[in-house]
Amino acid sequence: MLKGRAFKFGDSISTDHIVPGRLAHLRSNLPELAKHVLEDADPTFASKVKSGDFIVAGNNFGLGSSREHAPLVIKMSGVSAILVKSVARIFFRNAINLGLPVLVCDTDKISDGDELEVDLEQGVINDKSNGNKLTFKRIPKAMLSILNEGGLIPYIKKHGDFKL
Amino acid sequence: MGKTLAEKILSRKSQVDVCAGDIVVASVDLAFVQDTTGPLTVREFEAAGFELSANGGKTVLFLDHAAPSPNCQLSTDHILLRSFARRTGSRLFDVGEGVCHQIVAESMAKPGDVIVGSDSHTVTAGGLGAFATGMGSSDIAVAFALGKTWLRVPESIRVMVNGDLQKGVYAKDLILHLIGLIGADGATYQSLEFGGETIEKMPVSGRLTIANMAIEAGAKVGLFAADEMTHKYLIEQARGDYYQSISPDTDASYIKTIEIDAAGIEPTVSKPHTVDNTALAKELKGTRIQQVFIGTCTNGRLEDLAVAATILEGKKRHPETRVIIAPASKEVLLQAIAAGYIQTFIEVGAVILPPGCAACLGLHQGVLGEGEACLSTANRNFKGRMGNPDAFIYLGSPATAAAAAISGEITDPREVL
Ligand code: SF4
């Protein structure tokens, strides 16, 4: 069971909002890069987010670049899952490859600051602040098997190949 | 049931008869990284204890995003990539060779290939009929190690374009028009497959521009049939032997067909801060532009520079508008010099940058100041993209960019042609 607070963002949060190109020189210094996570969408996010918290956003989250640093610094910031109305393809694949769940649900029902509990097994999000129970779309089977191993590299190290 | 281009290529590469929705493990013909995503790939690859897969020559590294490097951290990243290439015998394209996608199109991509790169605009090679798609560093580390990748066979949207593009209207306007129509997530997870007489007559350069921006509609791939135009292009690159014709079956099944009348398209511009926020250039007349940037994997090819040079010949840039031009590759630069375009640009008052990504992603060579507006021929205008979240990026064709260079404001290029 994942537990934490919701940090709400709007639609079309791009990889440039998450880790802009101007910080490319920090990509080999991940702890430093992580201090800037989502800076161009909310400059206060990095200082407020705590381990277990959730990013809750609208449509097409993570559009843009293939930079895996985007989900990587989000994961490093302690975020336990990203809840969205929809997600861009490469970002989705990258997040799962790093063992970071992205869950597609009706995020309009969640407000900024809500206390959430997410049950990945049951597919349920419990919003303790307003009592709502939401369900999220199943993660496709192939991706779930990667997520369950903690990401793509651990998956390949264990299986030696794709067994999807 | 007939097959789409995506189904056809992925069936061959997985040796399974697949259709949309299936999961395939496909062999990879080319896997590459660039200098802002490659270091993570290399570290992941090494931490996992991987070795390069036996199919050598398929692993390529490009130093193009920070080229030459603007600071010590990125120089250190370059050292890491160079030493990985040396140690593994992978191909390396060092600083000054050009943007990865242009070099892939010029010298590596073949019709029917599966190409993966740790850069979202890997889709560019779809213009040559290759199933080319961007992935993250982990996926590419695994493609380096196994020589294969997993893919979900995408559903396809058929985009049929018929009629003649008007004078002053280009492939860039067509793709901006389409993205404005379907939205930045209008093709998420899907393949955009282009056809129709406008596309059949379109040289590969324009097809690459369109394929490059498929990702800006969320698509996994933007595919073109490999036809006589493709063959001609490959022959020009002395790679004619790699040609094979590939086209979708006439009874292939698409989730949707979009019909576009090419003659009805006008010079189009994406306004800040999303690519689907489109308007006609003429509607934006009067919008002041402080910087014009012509280049990138979208529009830094010889044909693009030719269009700009025709408009700029004998003119002077507007005194309050900087003009920055970066040919997409060394090959393009050499040809542009031979054609006299570079001379024209310098006389206009432009700055010529080395082949590479240059100002495109905001880490050097043309970072915007606060409140400034840039008209760029690139593919993305996200907030902060060109190094400053308080700046504004408009996207347009090389003709629209050249017109703004002279007038200092967004201008319909048909006014100056
Ligand atoms: S030119 Fe721009 S869009 Fe193309 S690969 Fe370089 S940074 Fe990316």
Q: What does this protein structure show overall?
A:
The complex is a heterodimer of chains A (164) and B (417). By secondary structure, chain A is an alpha/beta fold. Chain A has one domain (2-159): Aconitase, domain 4, CATH 3.20.19.10. Helix content of chain A is 28%, strand content 18%. In chain A, strands 4-3-2-1-5-6-7 form a seven-stranded mixed sheet. In chain A, strand 6 and strand 7 form a beta hairpin. The longest helix of chain A is centred in the middle third of the chain and has 9 residues, at 89-97. Chain A starts with a strand and ends in a 5-residue tail after the last helix. The mean pLDDT of chain A is 96. Chain B has 417 residues and is an alpha/beta fold. Chain B folds into three domains: 24-151, Aconitase, domain 3 (2-Layer Sandwich), CATH 3.30.499.10; 154-265, Aconitase, domain 3; 268-415, Aconitase, domain 3, CATH 3.30.499.10. Chain B is built from 14 helices and 18 strands. Chain B has helices at 5-14, 38-47, 72-88, 100-107, 137-146, 171-182, 197-200, 204-212, 228-236, 296-299, 302-312, 330-338, 341-348, 398-407; strands at 23-27, 30-34, 59-62, 91-93, 114-117, 131-134, 148-152, 156-162, 191-195, 221-224, 256-261, 268-270, 278-280, 291-295, 322-326, 351-352, 373-376, 392-395. In chain B, helix 2 crosses helix 5, helix 6 (171-182) packs parallel to helix 8 and helix 11 packs parallel to helix 14. The N and C termini of chain B lie far apart (48 Å). The mean pLDDT of chain B is 97. Classes of the chains: A alpha/beta (164), B alpha/beta (417). Chains A and B meet through helix 4, helix 5 and helix 7 of A and helix 2, helix 3, helix 5 and strand 7 of B. Iron/sulfur cluster is lined by residues 65, 99, 101, 119, 121, 296-297, 357, 360-361, 378-379 of chain B.
